[in-house]
Structure formats: structure tokens, C-alpha cells
Write a structure and sequence with these properties.
The structure holds two protein chains of two kinds. Chain A is an all-alpha fold. Chain A is built from twelve helices and no strands. Chain A has one domain. Chain A has helices spanning about 1-20, 25-55, 60-85, 90-95, 95-100, 110-115, 120-135, 145-170, 180-190, 200-210, 220-225, 240-265. Chain B has two domains: about 1-240, P-loop containing nucleotide triphosphate hydrolases (Rossmann fold, 3-Layer(aba) Sandwich); about 240-315, 2-Layer Sandwich (Alpha-Beta Plaits). In chain B, about 35% of the residues lie in helices and about 30% in strands. Chain B has ten helices and 13 strands. In chain B, the strands form three sheets. Chain B has a six-stranded mixed β-sheet with strand order 5-6-7-3-8-9, sandwiched between helices. In chain B, strands 11-12-10-13 form a four-stranded antiparallel β-sheet, with helices on one face. Chains A and B meet through helix 1, helix 5 and helix 12 of A and helix 1, helix 2, strand 5 and helix 3 of B.
Chain lengths: ~270, ~325
């Protein structure tokens, strides 16, 4: 438990080194930051253009889709910024840097996550915040809705957080499995940018009970938008997001421990 | 005090091999087996053996990176794999072929980070840094980005990094690999000073017998996962019957040289090869040769560690 208390501080120390490192190449730093902001910006512009030819998508208008898109974008953006580097764990195994990390008195997960911390990932988050802001402008805000929105964003971050960690753990067994992991992280982000109504019911079931991505934005947003659940699920699903987040964090923590134990017991 | 206590340590790996299109066979490899030794505080021990003998598997178990399959292992009273983080504060590890320093940042920055994550008292950190910077001659390099350092400079940086938290044990994996003769010498001097003044226990793996000769009172030779020799270097040479070779380039072609303590093995024109026991000093033979003959040039070939080990096996 003492490890948990000092972890954020240690994370900041290591992350700061990488920020300074990246500033050693200022031109590359700025082109990457601006470039990543532009790419994500164009992504939403594309969605907006689509609404030029169709009035609604799965029964949802552009403003409502913006809310879903923004919430999911903030979630994956923050997770990617803070712990996206965990995807590189396979590289650390291959090159042996993981061994060096294991000889340091800092939790391995902190070191792996803080490795190559890149400020340029803020580009994606700022775009998501802007889109979320645009969607939120049209919401009838009440106090419970504000509270739920805060919980939604926090849960979204934690759920993507866990997906990154849990799927990266596969690399302790098969070194090159990032593509498979990306299907759930970035793929999950793409799916949750749209209303669930465009998918068959089975997909929603999977995204609720198997990989709980629907809790990232879908259920809470339905409440924020004063919409009954199109699939007929009770409205209290909206407040289950924090629970889903805690569960996924627990599962990914377990997966990480198992992965590290596998590594230290096989050395491969 | 026994600092490293290894008893009947074993480590097996499961290896899967393809046998045919789909079938795979599963076999167990004993990377380390029946390994027993103890290292006292303040010792300097060379841990040597051919590639694949189990050297790095042992070091990984000693540092807590790998869990042993069986046997007893205590380092500084701790069980490495279970108390890895706690142990990390008491040991230093230097991997010769890769750096743990921040590539794009000045050396100074890496040292500052280490002070924080090892929670070294700032005053003590300053004192240590000052001392190591002086001993390793890093003063002008502190503000240079690591990527601009030479291999030797980087190695000195890495060693400082591993020592700033005052570890009781320093593991060095091939510390002199790729270094020029002067850098090697300076590094060995430093390690000797470190051991003498701070009492730091050193354990190094190396392919360079001169590292061992210059530093280690004791050598552990490992082969096929188990210790085949444990004792002083001179005993190793005696047991392995290993020889050094003095290559003499004479001014003229003469009959085979005959001096006491050496045997002429080969003559090729003006060049002659003399072999003598590796445990003996070369000085009397060199001066005897130089006194009796017109010498144009001299060089000494060290016995190859792999040869010495092969001899031990052949003799066993």
C-alpha cells in the first residue's frame, strides 16, 4: 500500500525526464504535437460532414453524437497520455530494459507507464474536450447531471486505463500482440464514438457485460440527454459506470500481477 | 558476514521446439543446477563461464528478476524475488552493453532522478556525487547529453549511477567490454578503490581474464549451470594447466630460444612462440630473453577463458 502512495510522485519524476528529453528536439516536439492535434481535429470534421448528408445517426443528432464522441475521446486521451506507454511492455521484454527496471525500487507498472511520456498526446485530449464542450452546450444541465458527467469522464479514463494495461499484459506471453490490444483500446474508442443504436443488440451486450465499453459514455450520456434507453435497459445503468471502472481496474491489476509473475518465473 | 548465500540453487526453463508442421515438443533445460556458494561482505568475485553457462540466469536470480525453481537464496538477508524492491535499494547493477542513463539528457539529470527514486538524503547524494565525479573524472561531462559521451565515458556514468545510493553489492556484467586499454585500467583502479575504501562487495561477470587478474581474489567458474571451480585465480590456472604465450620477434633467425621457466613451442622465421604457466609472472622470462637475444618486439597472449575451462573439464 505504501507503494500506491508514492507511485504518483515517482511517476511524475520519471515523466518529467521524458518531457525534458523530448524538448531536446524542439522542432520534432512541436511538429508532432501540432500534427496529432490536426489529425484528431480532421477526424471530427469528417463526422460533421457525414451529418450533412444524413440528419441523424441511429436516431441521434450531431450535437448528441458530439457528447458521446467527446466523452470517449477524453477517456482514451487521458489514458493514452498517462499510461499509453504500457503498450511497449513487449519491447521492454525483448530489449531487456524490463530487467533494468526490475532492479529499481519503483513499481514496474509506474516505470513502464511513465516511459517515453509524451506531451504531444495532449493534442488528442484538447480536441476531445472541444467536441465534448460543443455537445455539452446543448444539454439541460442540472446538479445530478453535472455530477454524473464528472463520474462519467473519470470512469471513462479508468476503463480505458484498464484496457490498456490488461491487453498489454498479453505481451508477457506473446511478445507481439499490440495489434490485438489495439482492437480493444483504439477500436473500443472508435465504437463508442457512435450511438450504440447503430449496432446489433449482441454488440451492446458484449460492450456491457464482457468489455464494459458502453459504460464509458453510452449509459451516462443517455441520462444527460434525457433519453430513455433505446434497448429498454433501466435508467439506473447510467450510474453503474464507476462500478464498471472499479471492476476493470481490479481485473487489469490482477492481469498485470499475473503477467509480471509469469515473466519472473520464465524470463521470457 | 555472508552477504550472498546460495544453496543448491536451480533454475529450469521449459523450451518448446517445433517438431513437424504442428507438433511441438516440450523439454526442460537446466540453466542452473546444484549451485552452491557464499560470498562474504567485502569480497571481489569474478563469475565466469562460457556463453550459455548460466551466468546471467544466476545474476537475474540474485537481483530478483527471476524466481528460482528450487534451492535457497538470500542476498543481504533478503529473498530477492519476494523482496525485490527492498533489495533494489541495497544493490547496484551495471549492464555493460546497455545504459540505464537518459540518452538525450545531461548526465547530471539522470543522477538527480536516481537521488529521488532511491530517496537518498540530498547531503549524502551531493557528497557521493562529488566523490565519484572526482574519482571517475566526470567533472567536465556532467552537463553533456549522454548520447554524446564515448563508450568509456558512458560506462563511468553508468557505474556512478549504480553507486549513488551506496549499495552494499555491485553487480557488473561485462564492465570493460569494448573499452580501450586506458579506460579499462582506470575502471579497474576505481573498482579496487571502491572495494578498499567503502567495502563494497563486487561480483563481476566477464570474458576478460585481465579484469579478473586485476580485481578478483576469487573466481567462480560456472559451466552447464553449475560451479566447476571456486577459488583463487592462481589455483584456476594450476588446475586448468593454462599457459600464457610470449611472442618474440627477433632481429635474426636463430635456433629455438632456451630460457628457464618457458618452453619454445613454435618457430617461424625470426618469430618464436614461448609458453609459460599462466600463474607465473612474465617479467623474469622477458628479461632473460632480452638479455640473451636481440629482440625487435615482444607481446604476450593471455590464455582464453574458454580454453582454461575446457582444460578443467578435460582434466576432471
Amino acid at each position: 500500500m505504501a507503494e500506491l502512495r508514492t507511485a504518483p510522485q515517482e511517476y511524475v519524476w520519471i515523466a518529467r525526464m521524458w518531457v525534458r528529453s523530448s524538448l531536446a528536439y524542439p522542432l520534432s516536439f512541436w511538429t508532432l504535437t501540432v500534427g496529432s492535434a490536426l489529425i484528431t481535429l480532421l477526424d471530427f470534421v469528417g463526422l460533421g460532414l457525414m451529418f450533412h448528408s444524413i440528419p441523424t445517426l441511429g436516431g441521434f443528432g450531431l450535437r448528441e453524437v458530439a457528447l458521446l464522441y467527446g466523452a470517449s475521446g477524453i477517456g482514451i486521451g487521458v489514458a493514452d497520455l498517462l499510461i499509453g506507454s504500457v503498450e511497449q511492455v513487449g519491447v521492454h521484454v525483448r530489449t531487456g530494459t524490463l530487467d533494468a527496471m526490475l532492479t529499481r525500487p519503483v513499481p514496474l507498472l509506474v516505470q513502464v507507464c511513465a516511459d517515453r511520456f509524451a506531451v504531444r498526446r495532449l493534442g488528442r485530449i484538447s480536441q476531445a474536450v472541444a467536441v465534448f464542450g460543443y455537445g455539452a452546450w446543448w444539454v439541460d444541465w442540472t446538479l445530478p447531471k453535472v455530477a454524473l458527467a464528472v463520474l462519467m469522464v473519470a470512469s471513462a479514463c479508468l476503463i480505458f486505463f484498464s484496457l490498456f494495461v490488461a491487453f498489454s499484459c498479453i505481451q508477457f506471453w506473446t511478445v507481439d500482440s499490440t495489434e490485438f490490444a489495439n482492437a480493444f483500446t483504439y477500436g473500443g474508442n472508435t465504437m463508442t464514438q457512435y450511438p450504440m443504436t447503430i449496432f446489433p443488440r449482441e454488440v451492446l451486450k458484449g460492450l456491457t457485460f464482457v468489455v464494459p465499453l458502453a459504460f464509458v459514455n453510452w449509459y451516462p450520456c443517455l441520462y444527460l440527454l434525457d433519453r430513455p434507453d433505446p434497448f429498454g435497459l433501466p435508467s439506473w445503468f447510467a450510474v453503474l459506470s464507476p462500478l464498471a471502472a472499479v471492476l476493470t481496474v481490479a481485473v487489469s491489476g490482477l492481469a498485470w500481477r499475473t503477467g509480471v509473475r509469469h515473466y519472473t518465473s520464465t524470463g521470457s | 558476514m555472508t552477504l550472498i548465500d546460495v544453496q543448491d540453487l536451480a533454475r529450469t526453463f521449459v523450451v518448446r521446439k517445433r517438431a513437424g508442421a504442428l507438433r511441438r515438443t516440450r523439454s526442460e533445460v537446466n540453466a542452473v543446477r546444484e549451485l552452491t556458494f557464499g560470498i562474504e561482505a567485502g569480497e571481489m568475485v569474478g563469475y565466469i563461464g562460457p556463453n550459455g553457462a548460466g551466468k546471467s540466469t544466476t545474476i537475474k536470480m540474485l537481483t530478483g528478476i527471476l524466481v528460482p525453481s528450487s534451492g535457497r537464496l538470500l542476498v543481504a538477508g533478503l529473498e530477492p524475488s519476494r523482496q525485490r524492491t527492498e533489495l533494489a535499494r541495497r544493490i547496484g547493477v551495471v549492464f555493460g552493453q546497455r545504459t540505464t542513463l537518459w540518452w538525450d539528457l545531461p548526465l547530471r539529470d539522470s543522477f538527480e532522478l536516481l537521488q529521488k527514486i532511491y530517496r537518498v538524503d540530498p547531503a549524502r547524494h551531493r557528497r557521493n556525487l562529488q566523490e565519484y565525479v572526482e574519482l571517475l573524472d566526470l567533472g567536465d561531462l556532467l552537463d553533456t547529453p549522454v548520447r554524446q559521451l564515448s563508450l568509456g565515458q558512458r560506462m563511468r556514468g553508468d557505474i556512478t549511477a549504480a553507486l549513488l545510493h551506496d549499495p552494499e553489492i555491485l553487480y557488473l556484467d561485462e564492465p570493460t567490454i569494448g573499452l580501450d586499454v586506458i579506460s579499462k585500467g582506470r575502471l579497474r583502479d576505481f573498482l579496487r578503490t571502491l572495494n578498499a575504501e567503502r567495502g563494497t562487495t563486487l561480483m563481476l561477470t566477464t570474458h576478460d581474464l585481465q579484469d579478473i587478474e586485476a580485481l578478483c581474489d576469487r573466481v567462480i567458474v560456472i559451466d552447464h549451470g553449475t560451479a566447476v571451480f571456486d577459488g583463487p585465480l592462481s589455483d584456476l590456472h594450476r588446475r586448468g594447466g593454462s599457459h600464457r604465450t610470449l611472442v618474440v620477434d627477433l632481429v635474426d633467425e636463430v635456433a629455438p630460444i632456451s630460457v628457464a621457466g618457458a618452453e619454445t613451442r613454435k618457430v617461424e622465421g625470426p618469430r618464436q612462440w614461448l609458453s609459460f604457466p599462466a600463474g607465473e609472472s612474465a617479467a623474469p622470462i622477458v628479461s632473460a630473453v632480452a638479455a640473451a637475444y636481440d629482440v625487435a618486439d615482444l607481446s604476450i597472449q593471455e590464455p582464453d577463458i574458454e580454453d582454461v575451462i575446457r582444460e578443467i573439464y578435460a582434466g576432471a
